[in-house]
Amino acid sequence: MTAKSKAKFDTPLSMDYRPLEIEREIREFWEKNHIQERLMEHREKSNIGVLGWVEGPPTLNGIPHVGHARGRVMKDLWFRWRTMQGYFVPFWAGWDCQGLPVELEVEKLLGVRNKRELLERVGEERFVEECKKTIMRYHKEWVEADRKLGIFIDQKKAYWTYKDEYIEREWQYLKRAWEQGLLEEGYYVVAYCPGCQTSLSSAEVGYEGSYVEVEDPSLYFKFRIADKPDEYFLVWTTMPFTVVTDLMLAVHPEAEYAKVQVGNEKWVMVKQRVEPVMQELGIKDYAVVETFLGKSLEGVKYDYPFKDLIPKQAELDKHPLVHRVVCEDFVDVNTATGVVHLSPGNGE
Q1: Which DSSP helix (H) or strand (E) runs through 50?
Q2: Torsions phi, psi of 245, nearest 5?
Q3: Residue 74 belongs to what H/E stretch?
Q4: Which residue segments constitute the domains of the chain, with CATH numbers given?
Q5: Strand-strand pairing, 219-225 and 231-237
Q6: What gap in Å lies between CA 172 and CA 299, rounded to an integer?
Q7: Burial, 258: exposed, middle or buried (Cβ in 10 Å; 0-12, 13-18, 19+)?
Q8: Could you tell me the CA-to-CA distances from 22 to 17, 81, 180, 254, 259 in Å, in that order?
Q9: So what's the pLDDT on residue 239?
Q10: Which residue of 165, 178, 251, 293 is most buried, as measured by CB atoms within 10 A?
Q11: Element (H, E) at 35
Q12: 0.70 cut: is pTM over it?
């Protein structure tokens, strides 16, 4: 049944509207009468069901900004809506107290540049204590911000990620997951920070000041074709360090490739890039001696030049698919040489 009522247009709105005073009066009423606590107690005893809630904890490495306020207001609206529907929602707070954001904040406060300097000048025990002081200082700011926003989140039942009971509970969950066969062990490429001495998440890589535009050298290099002492694949890369883990070369199967006579050597590259590459390299005396489709190169073996320096490469070289040419449609034949070296383990 829907209750019907008529609007009272004869009651004028006050021209002396003071929102801050109204907010203060409402907050004082809630706090004086323990409205939040009484609401939670009532819904826990009388409800039509329980809705799970896990607070995605903000990190206590700074004061809350308008983006945080927006998110917390949205959470609070959801809580109030579901509570008014008759559900019990355990709307409990949570605080992320560990990790790189807190550590970097404390390092700035202590005036150190990296972990090595931190351990030498400050020491691990004091660093931990300073981290705890920092999170408690910012925690006060967050609780006060929640109070001013009128957020009904339960601070008394908040979880803290640095406390032993939280950490031990997480290990219990991991143990159960392992026992039930829900965890797997494998390899994943991640960014690593030498200064922080830790791996980085994608979010941490994106922190302000993390990206710096620098000029990096590109490199043309040759891989000799196996059993053909004077023939080479010509390759170009913007990341010379990836040559260390090279495993394959890729060509476009439908593109036209050429053997180019340069002095006593023959270089294999995509035909349409011969002239621009030779101009870039400053080579005037050259000649195309043979052309063929890229797919004819599939399976061709080439000699990896650093097998004596990298034992693992010598071991992998015995594999029938390693250090051979593969055909791939993604090969760009409009830039570089049309021969792409494939080097896993250098990106996601």
Answers
A1: strand 49-50
A2: -110, 20
A3: helix 66-84
A4: 19-182+189-205 (3.40.50.620), 219-342 (3.90.740.10)
A5: antiparallel
A6: 50
A7: buried
A8: 9, 22, 54, 74, 82
A9: 87
A10: 251
A11: helix 35-45
A12: no
